[in-house]
Amino acid sequence: MIGETQLRARRTRLKILRAIAEKNGIAGFSEIRNSTKLSTGSIYYHLERMKNYVIKKSKNYVITEAGLNLLSEAENKMANE
After folding, report:
1. d(CA 48, CA 54)
2. What digits encode the pLDDT tens for the residues 26-69?
3. For the domain 4-79, what is the CATH code?
4. In angstroms, rounded to a whole number, what is the distance separating the alpha carbons of residues 64 and 16?
5. 76: Cα separation from own chain's centroid
6. Which one of 32, 72, 75, 79 has the fewest beta carbons within 10 angstroms of its own beta carbon?
């Protein structure tokens, strides 16, 4: 069973992935912050733990294929609940 803290972290990470995906897969930090309404510290914390799903290129964050797959799976799961 997943704990409340882990569930909250997953939701936050999906929110970040969705924000980047909505910007055609590439977004600057300010765009992520404005879209998600998360704190700066929270975004940095989660991006650091999402290295398989988001990579930093110059001043932008780019969603990887693994990130797109994870987001798609999560959205399909939510649609079927």
Report:
1. 9
2. 999 999 999 999 999 999 999 999 999 999 999 999 999 999 99
3. 1.10.10.10
4. 13
5. 16
6. 79
